[in-house]
UniProtKB/TrEMBL annotation:
Its main location: membrane. It comes from the Bacteria. The chain crosses the membrane at residues 21-42, 54-73, 93-114, 126-146, 158-176, 188-208, 220-238, 244-261, 307-331, 337-353, 374-392, 398-417. One of its GO terms (cellular component) is plasma membrane. This is Lipopolysaccharide biosynthesis protein. The keyword Methyltransferase does not apply. It is found in: Cell membrane. It is a multi-pass membrane protein. The keyword Kinase does not apply.
Length: 445
């Protein structure tokens, strides 16, 4: 009996969703420690500026990933031929290098060629660090995309954990040696990402030598699909970062720091959602490509509904325990952020269903519909934030707008999905409840 239980546990731990959840959960935990330490070791102004830098860089990474990853998965889902997959790998490398080079040259040209305009973007030193990190992270990013396309989630999670772990160790070392500075964070961030890129090159996960196999046809298809995905992911990231940019512009870096502490909890809540959702994209895309629409609907509604049911109690707990959670992470100086966290927890209850509606649209080959969904959300969040900041000049008012934003995304996403497959919001909730209650009955009986 014990042997059977051990085998079940081992089998569970080998599942892609569990591997992804453990990896992303570990990465989120490391990020949480990093945030807690930097919130205590940096003045509010510098902590706010560092948050703006990371938000901007994440925006760039989102654009690069949106251009390539979803298209790569879409065209290689279920692909058996390794020779054909090498062509897609080569094309991905080629487009990725060109995009990174053009973006880097554009930023450097703006900052150094037009100093007046450049000062509105950032200071030259920060831009140079930005470009350096963008280049050094390319091998590691490529590795995660290729591993994702092949559903090899264990090495993928190793890469994702390594970067925040090395970064945490480096700046903590500086602190204990008395050499910790704000500018030193950029150096440590570059070293952390660079060391992981060296690791993936040595391990062969980046498949950089296959760059020569890329063909014009594959590059064209990547860009054709990616032009929709890039917009979708860019806007989706702007939904998370627009608050940061607008708060920085209207109320300053200190307001960003005050907002970033409770925001990290919503990002932590989003971690299991992203971990599970990304493992479902290849399966949903494969079912749709094989025209197994009834199985697609059944799998989608069961998975999305079950995840929503599982995370609902977590959102409720975060709402109730908001004040001690905010104090634990940022210290007593951020205690007033409890109201913001409670608003975020209401938003958090909507995340699983909204996320699944997005990946469902990509899986059925409708990235333009997903783009329209997130565009609706962006309009709601930017117009709402501007109105809230103009009328109330309040960080909490900005957090409240996020609830309206996710409501708009949730309902529009399922409306778009219903045009292509017979997925409904009510059906998803019912399927989730049926699946979860059935599992609980089997466990208790």
């Amino acid at each position: 009996m014990k042997r059977i239980r051990v085998e079940r546990i081992v089998g569970l731990l080998r599942k892609n969703a569990v591997v992804s959840l453990l990896g992303n959960g570990t990465g989120a935990f490391l990020g949480l420690i990093t945030l807690a330490l930097l919130a205590r070791w940096l003045p509010k102004e510098e902590f706010g500026r560092w948050t703006v830098f990371l938000t901007t860089y994440t925006l760039f990474e989102t654009v690069r990933m949106g251009l390539l990853l979803n298209a790569l998965i879409r065209y290689t889902a279920g692909m058996v031929s390794e020779e054909e997959f090498r062509r897609w790998v080569g094309a991905t490398w080629q487009v990725g290098i060109v995009f990174t080079a053009l973006t880097s040259l554009l930023l450097i040209g703006l900052v150094f060629g037009f100093p007046v305009l450049g000062r509105q973007i950032s200071d030259p030193e920060t831009v140079l660090w930005f470009v350096a990190v963008a280049i050094i992270t390319l091998p590691a990013n490529m590795s995660t995309w290729f591993l994702h396309a092949r559903s090899r989630f264990l090495p993928l999670q190793v890469i994702r954990i390594a970067v925040p772990l090395v970064f945490l160790l480096l700046f903590s070392w500086d602190w204990f040696n008395g050499s910790f500075t704000y500018n030193g964070l950029f150096r440590n961030y570059f070293i952390a990402n660079g060391s992981v890129s060296v690791l993936v090159l040595l391990a062969g996960w980046s498949r950089w030598e296959e760059i020569r196999f890329g063909l014009k046809e594959h590059r064209r298809q990547l860009i054709a699909f990616g032009k929709y995905s890039i917009g979708t992911l860019l806007i989706a990231n702007l939904l998370r970062s627009a608050d940061i940019f607008l708060l920085s512009a209207f109320l300053g870096p200190a307001a960003v720091a005050f907002y970033a502490i409770p925001q990290r909890f919503i990002q932590l809540l989003d971690t299991p959602v992203r971990s599970i959702v990304v493992t479902d994209i290849p399966r949903l895309a494969e079912l749709h490509q094989r025209h197994q629409l009834s199985l697609f609907v059944e799998h989608f509604q069961r998975s999305a509904g079950r995840l929503w049911m599982l995370l609902l109690p977590v959102s409720l707990a975060g709402f109730v325990l908001a004040e001690p959670l905010v104090t634990l992470l940022g210290g007593t100086q951020y205690r007033d952020g409890a109201l913001i966290l409670r608003l975020f927890m209401i938003q958090g209850a909507l995340i699983p269903l909204e996320r699944y509606s997005g990946i469902g649209l990509d899986a059925v080959g409708q990235p333009q519909a997903n783009l329209a969904k997130v565009l609706i959300m962006l309009v709601v969040t930017i117009s709402g934030d501007l109105l809230a900041l103009y009328l109330f000049q309040s960080v909490a008012a900005v957090a409240f707008i996020s609830i309206l934003t996710f409501c708009a995304g949730l309902f529009s996403g399922f409306w778009f999905m219903g045009r292509y497959v017979s997925v409904t919001l009510i059906g998803t909730i019912q399927s989730g409840w049926k699946d979860l209650s059935g599992r609980l009955n089997r466990i208790t009986s």
